[in-house]
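During the no-cost extension, the postdoctoral fellow (Dr. R.K.) reprocessed legacy sequence entries with the updated structure-token encoder. One reprocessed record is reproduced below for audit purposes.
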Amino acid sequence: MTKIYFPREILPIASVLASFVDFLIASLIFVGMMLFYRVPVGLSIVTLPVLVLIQVVLTVGIVLAASAMNVYYRDIRFIVPVGLQLWMYLTPIIYPVTLVPERFRGLYMLNPMAGLIDSYRRVILKAQWPNPFYLVTAAAISLLIFAVAYTYFKRSEALFADII
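Re-encoded structure tokens follow.
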């Protein structure tokens, strides 16, 4: 059987894009609810595309790494949901960042989703500008995760066809 080349990044990125469509639909419903409840929208809403872009870069990075690891270690698909659930508790989704003690906040903000969730909360619910430090930290760590994951994926892909 001959090997046909196609960019293997397409497969994991396609799964991210499929989920992104769900995100857009949920966002439309959320906007409808905001309009219904007359939630005030500030000028800071213009930063929303930047937040989404950072989130997509982070997500693609994680998906590339997980998909490459899944080729070698089949149990990754069972570990990822548990890891995501643990990660959710380490992210200020159901509590504000201000509940994290000040002395741990710098370490805590190394979680890129912490800065993103705080920024989403500020922009959407409070009509405030995102904290620049949190946003830059989230963007830098997301880009780093993406770069490392993409490098790992590219180095691993030569063996994908042989293993699968």
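The chain has one domain: 10-163. The chain has a mean pLDDT of 91. The remaining legacy entries will be reprocessed before the final report is submitted.
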